[in-house]
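2024-03-11 09:14:02 INFO receiving multi-entity request
2024-03-11 09:14:02 INFO entity count = two
2024-03-11 09:14:03 INFO echoing inputs for audit
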Amino acid sequence: MKMILYHFYCFVIICLCLQSISICAAESLGVKIIVHTDVNESISANDIRNIFLGKKTQWNNHQRIRFVLLTQKKLYRNFLAKYVGKTLYQYRNYWRKKVFTGTGMMPVMFKDCKQTIDYVKRTKGAITFIPTSEIISDNVKEITIQ
Amino acid sequence: MPRCSMVSLFVIICLTILVSDLTAITFDRIQVHGFVSQGFMISDRNNYLADTDDGTFEFNEAGINFSQNFSEHFHVSCQFFARDIGDVGNNDIELDFALADYRLRDFIGIRFGKIKIPHGLYNEIRDFDMLRTFIFLPPVYYDISRSTINAMNGIGLYGNYQVPKIGNIEYQLIGGSKSIDPESGWSRYMERRGIDITQFDIGFVGCGQFIWNLPFQGVRLGMTGTCLNMAADAEIEFIPISTEYAIAGPDMAYNLDNFFIHVSFFEYTLNDLILAFEYMTFRGDLSLKTLHPKLPIKGYDVPVRTDTCYLSVSYRLSDYIEIGGFSAIFWPDSNDKSGQNMLPLPDYMGWHKETALCLRLDINESLTFKTEAHLIDGGALMMPQDNPEGIDRRSALFLFKLTFSF
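2024-03-11 09:21:47 INFO inference complete, emitting structure
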């Protein structure tokens, strides 16, 4: 019994040693929030958090909020850390829990920034996040978080 | 290694190679998600939930769910699930949930159908290995309770409300009924008391959950409660019944009235660190009455006073590795935590203390491998029917599990 425990703990320690713990600041990839032009209300940081957690589902005019995720890793991580307060893993698990309990469906997500912006352009009530360096055009506007 | 376990592992590996970047399958507007888990358990002394002292692969789960939005506010989803752990489940396919959900406003929505019961932090995800750190959850989610608190048929209200400076309040209230399989974990637990339950009859079931997400990021407090009355037919096993007292039908009536399960919980998340504490109480009035009018033993009235709590910590080291641990304690009778009233059984049958350490490897977004060690002191949750040669006070359990999900 003790030998089994000894070998188990050695295995765990070896795994931990082999895994390099990267302690580095998140790359400062600026994030901006954009919405479809028909969204005309001020939005707070709490609102952003609740929108992307599926807790705030309607704008003040009762129009359905349609949020979309841009899953470029560093940008995605930065957005989640800054606005949602979750890590990538925690956020994915949060939505998977909703799926596997029947209380929600997986959000719309794209890996490409252009596809994400196009989705917001054609979808009323849509909201997403993109890099600050990205240029936006008609039917989409950037909002300032209160 | 049993053939079915080899097949499970082969399927998991093939699926992983083919679909490592799969998050869902979509047919038109229907989303399809699913998972397959295969585990292995081995213990050094006591058999725990299955024949573990020789090692067993009788430890697997699989599920598939379908969901579709029909309008901006309305969606429908259902999930089929099968599991096998020892003698329970045996891979029988069951309808895990099937519900319709109409979200009127953020603060109110309606669900109806077969709905997962909110119980503590993790009950709704207890069957989905990929959604939690640990393979085996603490005794708050012990396997015997699954049949009682897994899901119910009914109608529920839910919602959340953002209160300035107070935080976000979430709630769920569900009322309805449920059925319990006589071959379930609860029946196995009653077998240790010499009662073989043959049929359950559950009356009204009500449950509620309130969660307060504090304005301090990462802190949430909550409470859940489930109440029901349970009646059952049972056969007496703890004494031999003379043919003089044999009757057609069950030997006794089993009634558990005013059954109330309460859980209070606290969770703190700081970046990759999650700290959780939960305390659960089971309360009820158990009444056993023999049905033959001339049987010498008429019945028992036994108050149920079970308590359990745990503290867990998990930390995500990277995208691929997470470690976790918990320390838990379970008392079947909170008025006898030292086990003094367990005579003629040894006093350690009056408690179950458990410490667990887990290592989780996320090989990719679809494939997860976990290894876990549990050190157990006490026999309160060991089944005599699994340990006919007696129950040792201390035992260790090792678990390995591979899960593919999409």
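2024-03-11 09:21:48 INFO post-check: Chain A is about 40% helix and 15% strand.
2024-03-11 09:21:48 INFO post-check: The domain at 27-143 of chain A is CATH 3.40.190.10 (D-Maltodextrin-Binding Protein; domain 2).
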